Amino acid sequence: MQDIDAPGLAGRAGYERHEGYAALRRVLGGDGGARMSPAEVMQEVAASNLRGRGGAGFPTARKWQFLPPPDGGPRYLVCNADESEPGTFKDHELLRKNPHLLVEGMTLAAYAMGVERGFIYLRGEFAQPGRGVDAAIREAYEAGYLGRNILGSGFRFDLSTYLGAGAYICGEETALLDSLEGRRGFPRLRPPFPAVAGLYARPTVVNNVETLCSVPVILRRGGAWFAAIGTEKSGGTKIYSISGHIARPGNYEYPLGTPLRTLLYDAAGGPLPGRTLKAVIPGGGSAGLFTPDLFDTPMDFEPVAKAGSMLGSAGVIVMDDHDCIVRASLFLQAFYADESCGKCTPCREGTKWLEMTLHRLEHGHGRPADLDLLRSVPKNILGNTFCGLGDAAVGFLMTATKHFWPEFEAHVAGGGCPLPEEVRR
Amino acid sequence: MTREARLERAQEIVASFPQRSSAVIPLLHLWQDSEGYLSDDSIAEVADVMGMPAAEVQEVVSFYSMFRRKPLGRYRIEVCKSISCALCGAGTVLEHLQQRLGVGLNEATPDGMFSVNAVECLARCDLAPVGQVNLEYTGRLTPEAVDAIIDRLRAGQSVSAAIGGETGA
Fold first, then answer.
1. Per-residue pLDDT tens for A266-289?
2. Which of A115, A172, A409, B125 is surrounded by the most beta carbons within 10 Å?
3. Which of A226, A225, A309, A283 lies closest to A60, judged by CA?
4. Which tens digit of pLDDT belongs to each residue from B20-62?
5. Is A183 within 8 Å of B23 when comparing Cβ atoms?
6. Which domains does chain A have, with CATH numbers?
7. How far, in Å, CA of B39 to CA of B42, rounded?
8. What span, in angstroms and rounded, lies between the C-alpha atoms of B66 and B64?
9. Which conformational region is residue A100 in: left (phi greater than 0), alpha (psi within -120 to 50 degrees), or beta?
10. How far apart are CA A222 and CA A240, in angstroms?
11. Domains contained in chain B, CATH given
């Protein structure tokens, strides 16, 4: 997010004024210097310890290296711009304000992998920022940064956008590929993995927007520079999206491993006046909540997992003492029930029943048996579904019932939400 | 866009993909953007261009939440109901919109001007409660803010002018 608010950054000239396409020039030898080989580019990314920024945190260079040796047939690089994880809005800002960064990042990645065709899969609701991305792609073609013989190097890369039509599941990479092939976005059985058989059954790598946007700076400043930021296992900075009941919601870029407390209080200004923080989700709607005793947790993949949640998309969602945890659970559960693709029974049925049960509790019809359901159903979903959406659907609820059980009991005993009506607004 | 121009554009889209199957979703967007929704005729026409059975096109249509099988308002007001927006008062905004316009969710006002829908996370949670009017982003919505948007749209302003751009963008 360097220079993210610089005027004109979204246009080619403005981007170039801020070191835009300097990495691509360096790599392809456009500045008179020696050209870097694809293997050397791969090496820099490996040295950077860049991990996927979409949620899984898988080491990026290792994912790229899963591609088999070229066989003369097409290979694809797909950018996952389906950002739909509740509480996450970092990719949207990058796409809106710095589309050329993604174009350059994808071109560099494609060069490293010997890929000549790329797609940016945008969620359908991103039609507006998508127009800016299309404009950036047109400018890049005009300037010779895309197309045949990029910067006279002989390397060719063609890039276009593809607009989805409303489906959270299409952020799951294999469902995304099915959607990109013009089908319903159902996840696929793996193996085979996309690197072996992805788009049109050809070798494909799918990467998140922020992951690909990290590549130019790695090639400008070096992998070692990037790895020196962050932690031993996770190189670089991460954009943390902070929202909910917090003073200054927004995207904040900090080194991986920064304590959650720093993000909440220093970056985002702490609670609203007169309120105290009650629970914070560190990693988007699919992640378990942290109570305040865990606010010193370093925001990196392993520490957050060890503390009982997941870093995921790093969508930090803040709840304060005015928020009912049962009501928050209902909001989240309704999302997963809506978004379940329907392919497998535990997710399709379980998400719906959890939403209905929480709805009964919140609206005064909760029964003691509902409390049993809220504890047993998530266990029947977790690990039993065809893809990760099932696990995502119960991540929050399992921690909510663990840490705030009395609130759930109070809804049944008291015939509804114990928080006064006006406070709930 | 004339029918001929749309068919020509459709052929360009089909030809742009390594495999033509990918074209069905962009074609559905193209038809929906020009007709306002996907009628049986639209689906039949897309099926014809694609060389697919209409039932297979309908299979795709029915999966995705943004494809409409009935006309909605000229101005489609969509408000996010996911967690951050819900915590910040999206429910109040949605109730107010339905009350002010005299419609339930996913239905158009009798004059065809407006419809209201609750949608899932729009990925602009810093502006919670977030909305879109005809897919243009707006945020920090309140009952007063949406009243002003409706008034400006009724007065003939463009969507961009009426929503006043993204608040705080």
1. 999 999 999 999 999 999 999 999
2. B125
3. A226
4. 999 999 999 999 999 999 999 999 999 999 999 999 999 999 9
5. no
6. 12-222 (3.40.50.11540), 237-320 (3.10.20.600), 325-424 (1.20.1440.230)
7. 5
8. 6
9. alpha
10. 23
11. 3-63 (1.10.10), 75-163 (3.40.30.10)
The closest alpha carbon to B32, from B64, B68, B74, belongs to B68
- pLDDT grade for A33, boundaries at 50, 70 and 90: confident
Locate tokens 């290792």: which residue? A62
Query: Do strands A237-244 and A204-208 pair parallel, antiparallel, or not at all (unpaired)?
Result: unpaired
Question: Tokens at residue A330, please?
Answer: 């209902």
Residue type, B32: Q
Helix (H, G, I), strand (E, B) or coil at A244: strand
Global pTM value: 0.97
Instruction: Give, for B39, the enclosing helix (H) or strand (E).
Output: none
Q: What is the pLDDT of residues B64-111, one digit of tens each?
A: 999 999 999 999 999 999 999 999 999 999 999 999 999 999 999 999
Q: Does B22 touch chain A (CB under 8 A)?
A: yes
Q: How many CB pairs under 8 A join A and B?
A: 140
Pairing state between β B131-133 and B136-138:
antiparallel
Q: Percent of chain A scored above 90 by pLDDT?
A: 96
Q: What value does the mean pLDDT of chain B take?
A: 96
ipTM metric: 0.97
3-state secondary structure of A61: helix
C-alpha gyration radius of chain A: 22
At A418, the pLDDT band (50, 70, 90 cuts) reads: confident
Identity of residue B16: S
CA–CA separation, A258 and A298 (whole Å): 5
Backbone angles phi, psi at A210, to 5 degrees: -65, -35
| Averaged pLDDT for residues A71-80 | 98
pLDDT level of residue B169 (50, 70, 90 thresholds): very low
Q: Is B84 near chain A, with CB under 8 Å?
A: yes
Whole-angstrom Cα distance, residue A30 to residue A342?
50
Mutate which of B126, B137, B140, B141 to disrupt the A interface (most A C-beta within 10 Å)? B126
pLDDT digits (tens, 9 = 90+) for A121-137: 999 999 999 999 999 99
Report chain A residues whose CB lies below 8 A from the CB of B125.
Answer: 86-89, 241, 243-244, 249, 315, 317
DSSP-derived secondary structure letter, A170: G
With beta carbons less than 8 A apart as the criterion, state whether B163 and B146 touch.
no
Classify B145 in phi/psi space as left (phi over 0), alpha (psi -120 to 50) or beta: alpha
Cβ-defined contacts of A246-250 (< 8 Å, 24+): A246/A270, A246/A271, A246/A272, A246/A318, A247/A271, A247/A272, A249/B84, A249/B125, A249/B126, A249/B127, A249/B128, A250/B126
Q: What is the pLDDT of residues B100-130, one digit of tens each?
A: 999 999 999 999 999 999 999 999 999 999 9
Query: CB-side exposure of A423: number of CA atoms within 13 Å?
Result: 13
Q: Do A332 and B81 touch (CB under 8 A)?
A: no
Put simply, the answer to whether A249 touches B89 (Cβ < 8 Å) is no
